[in-house]
Amino acid sequence: MSDTTSRISDNIDRFFDSDVWWSFKSSKVTIGAAIVTVLIIITAIFAHWVAPQNPFDPAQLDLLDSSLPPVWYADGTWKYMLGTDDQGRDILSALLYGSRISLMVGGASVVAAALIGVTLGLLAGYLGGSVDSLIMRVADVQMSFPAILVALLIDGVARGLLPNERHDELAIWVLIIAISLSTWVPFARTVRGSTMVEKNREYVQAARVIGRRPVAIMLHHVLPNVMGPVLVIATIGLATAILTEAALSFLGVGVPPTSPSLGTLIQIGNNFLFSGEWWMVVFPGIQLAVLVLAVNLLGDWLRDALNPKLR
Fold this sequence. Notes:
Largest sheet: none
Oligomer: single chain
Strand content: under 5%
Distance between the termini: 36 Å
Structural class: mainly alpha
CATH superfamily: MetI-like
Number of helices: 14
Number of strands: 0
Helix content: over 70%
CATH class: Mainly Alpha
């Protein structure tokens, strides 16, 4: 137990002495982006306790409070600081709950896409030959189509195969599958290139000599040395996945209105934009833009921090 604690302590000390930590603490923009991202994630996770209202619980809604403006208007109230929508839902609470769904869908999509892409990239780079050609030709074909169109196609096929009564129940899972299957290519291409370099290193050749199986070599020797670029792609991919989910939800093929994400809130608010109730669409739009911008800034910093040429 003491040895484990000592190793953890040593790893923490090495991290705070590393170039990555120095790069982080010396960039005010990165620190600000990290604070914003962590704040949004924490408030989304604990929305049940932080939000003034559960906007998706019909028992807590009152149609008499519908379409109220933000608090700085004459008709506004501190009970609904950012106003309410056409169903009397508190916009601030809807943002917190909607961010939770957007983050959950985006995060799960990135994890699934990384698993698919890293696995195929390792196989293509290490095995080469016909396996490499097949995987890369599939990747090239998919790269010729925008990810949003691929996601729309997959989502449409899945909804056509599922019973109508289960569409809302499985909507989030269908969305995660659609986004992950449309965004695995960058992971595969990057890991393939890194694997082709790493498999010719001396440590991989030594592992072959002592009789280690190819799967063990890929998992225990090659994979840890190609994870740097994967982390960068995953961070930037999170912002892309959140935007893709928002676009699909805005088009009406995302999560159901009973548990809307930021994209669904924007889609709902857009119907009332020209009636003067601008807060229904502007605040969810700002929340989405701030979240995506903060995650992208973190991804840009991580890319530069892990690039030895820029140290």
